[in-house]
Q: What sequence folds into this?
């Protein structure tokens, strides 16, 4: 990064620490910040500080919130008999964009990963079980990612919830809409065949 000032190199380095941001993208972002006026740069800086100061986890479901309870938990129109279990708050945003789910959520804040030293006690699993034991929950939808950690977590949750007289379901995985079978990877195609349902 020769040719840049020390402050520019530092900004590029900080952007590079973000997930999904490589050195080239970090450089472009830093150059963008350099080109915008002071008000725009200050607005970005203030937004970053505000999110750190104002945002916390919902006391009920662990979604992002600026109050004790998140907007979804406060919404009286939501169906509290159906809980969708996700790994991270970002997963809620993805599901909400579809407009197809009207239940409530529970965020685990991660997945089981023994190799990384992440066990059940490191996740919000006990809180989930407590919510179900309080009653009123008829269905728990497991919506973890279809990777090794997500599948391990899903199996663990299923074993814990089955004795609680709650219907345990898992979101479907497999062939994405609009794709051609010849281009689908073997694991996705296997999941699609295993998850087939009667029509």
A:
């Amino acid at each position: 990064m020769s040719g840049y000032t020390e402050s520019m190199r530092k900004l590029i380095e900080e952007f590079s620490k973000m997930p999904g941001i490589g050195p080239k993208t970090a450089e472009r972002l830093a150059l963008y910040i350099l080109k915008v006026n002071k008000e725009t740069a200050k607005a970005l800086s203030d937004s970053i500080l505000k999110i750190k100061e104002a945002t916390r986890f919902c006391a009920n479901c662990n979604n992002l919130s600026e109050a004790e309870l998140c907007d979804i938990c406060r919404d009286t129109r939501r169906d509290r008999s159906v809980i969708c279990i996700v790994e991270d708050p970002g997963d809620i945003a993805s599901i909400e964009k579809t407009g197809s789910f009207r239940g409530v959520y529970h965020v685990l804040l991660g997945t089981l990963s023994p190799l990384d030293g992440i066990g059940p006690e490191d996740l919000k699993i006990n809180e989930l079980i407590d919510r179900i034991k309080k009653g009123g929950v008829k269905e728990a939808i497991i919506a973890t990612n279809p990777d090794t950690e997500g599948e391990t977590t899903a199996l663990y949750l299923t074993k814990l919830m089955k004795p609680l007289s709650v219907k345990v379901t898992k979101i479907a995985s497999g062939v994405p809409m609009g794709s051609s079978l010849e281009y689908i990877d073997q694991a996705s195609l296997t999941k699609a065949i295993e998850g087939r349902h009667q029509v």
Remarks:
- The longest strand covers residues 79-86.
- DSSP finds eight helices and six strands in the chain.
